[in-house]
Amino acid sequence: MTSTDTDPVESEHRNTPFKAIRETVLLLAFAIILALVVKTFFVQSFYIPSESMEPGLIVNDRILVQKPSYWGSGSPQRGDVIVFDDPGGWLNGLEEGQPMSLLARGLAKIGLYPTGGHLVKRVIGVAGDTIQCCDDQGRIMVNGQPIDEDDFIEPQKDPPKSCDGPMPSGQMDCHWTAGPVPAGTVFVMGDNRNNSADSSVHLCRPNATQCDESEAYVPVKDVVGKVFALAWPLGRAHIIHTPDDFADVPDPT
Predict the structure, then answer these.
(1) What are the distances in angstroms from CA 154 to CA 5, 135, 195, 247?
(2) Residue 77 CB: number of other CB atoms within 10 A?
(3) pTM of the full predicted structure?
(4) How many alpha carbons lie under 13 Å from residue 160 in its C-beta half-sphere?
(5) I want to staple 185 with a disulfide (CB 3.0 to 4.6 A). Which of 10, 20, 209, 217 is the partner?
(6) Are 46 and 63 in contact (CB under 8 A)?
């Protein structure tokens, strides 16, 4: 063997560290691309920033949002819990994104860390619906059909809650009407009706001189997806289903 010949075994050992690094980088790049694809098209993680969805979802709960249900002609349905971008002036201090470290922000970008800066509410009315608060039993009515929401809204005993749809400001109490919901939008409310900056808050008050009624509705294009699971804490983790209470609501006339 001449001095210029290379031992194959020695060459293989010399290349092994570089080969391992190259494979690790490729696997990491593939994992990041896969995470971005999943986040963009399929599932994204968020955290609950406020008390507006109690008792089912509480502050700092981690939720999973699926997006395929609203692909193509799909759109939010009555009773769905949705995550959506701020349609304009809805976010307040408690619901804005929490401060995160540089690492957490990077992981959030690729879908590996729960994201904030969005709103989480329940769809009460879809395009064409008329929502009224309330019947003689204090129930929200959609297209004239009262909705029994006791299984998922926050009960209030002290003082007793007079209806299922009071505005937090109290200015319109339990007597208001919304709709028909404009095409391409939804009307949403938090399950904690006395502590939720939702569509009811943005309705025009009686005798208001400067008010845009359209601000009470969330454009469907701003909806990120449908909440389908509470992922953390593990002790409360479960699948989130759309309640059957909205099934008997008639189509708008």
Answers:
(1) 80, 18, 10, 21
(2) 15
(3) 0.79
(4) 2
(5) 217
(6) yes
